[in-house]
Amino acid sequence: MQAKPLRFITFEGSEGAGKSTQIRRLETRLLSLGEPVLTIREPGGTPLGERLRRLLKESAPEPALSPESELFLFLASRAQLVRETIRPALARDCWVLSDRFSDSTLAYQGGGRGFSPVLLRSLNELACAGLSPGMTFILDLPLSEAAARLARRKRESAQGDRIEQEPPEFFERVRSSYHDLARLEPDRIRLIDGGRPEDEVAEGIWEAVSHVFGL
């Protein structure tokens, strides 16, 4: 009998794709069944990770982060998160829902920044200590729609985000990388049309989770 995948589900996608909304909806559904759930975000999720998040998200750090520094800060946050938070939660048979994880590095630092995918997979393996999500949802949006959502979010918040300020071609490369990942790992990764109505997206995610995990 084939073992069920880890109760570790990650959500990926470009900025403004709706990850946070769908994580909350899945969390609510699992909690309604009496399941223990831990929701986390990357970078972040630990005291160290939250400090690194502020550095990585600042709209105008001085001096500007180099691509190499950015990469290692993300990896440092992830390494701490795996050891301090994710593995202990999984050991308690708790569901872990994460807003981003290792695939973000392959998409943003690989596709976006141009680092070698082979190098990034090796560094991810070290940072994650071999941990891989049991299931990953990539919420996909055309660049124009993602940009419109980001513009609305910026009008509602005074906070800047360094990565959101990248040019359109950066996000096209990121999106293309996510599509490549979905083709490479179809058993783990589900590519979801994030432009559909919120309820439809949530129902599609729940159908996949309930089928794979036998809920």
Automatic annotation (TrEMBL):
Gene Ontology molecular function, alphabetical: ATP binding; dTMP kinase activity
GO cellular component labels: cytosol
Origin superkingdom: Bacteria
InterPro entries listed in its UniProt record: P-loop_NTPase, Thymidylate_kin-like_dom, Thymidylate_kin_CS, Thymidylate_kinase
Record: residues binding ATP: G13, S14, E15, G16, A17, G18, K19, S20
UniProt domain Thymidylate kinase-like: residue ranges: 11-204
CDD domains named among the record's database cross-references: TMPK (cd01672)
EC class of the enzyme, as a word: transferase
Pfam families xrefs: Thymidylate_kin
EC numbers, comma separated: 2.7.4.9
Entry-linked NCBIfam families: DTMP_kinase
Protein's job: Phosphorylation of dTMP to form dTDP in both de novo and salvage pathways of dTTP synthesis.
Similarity-based family: Belongs to the thymidylate kinase family.
Name used for this protein in its record: Thymidylate kinase
Organism (species): Methylacidimicrobium tartarophylax
Gene coding for it: tmk
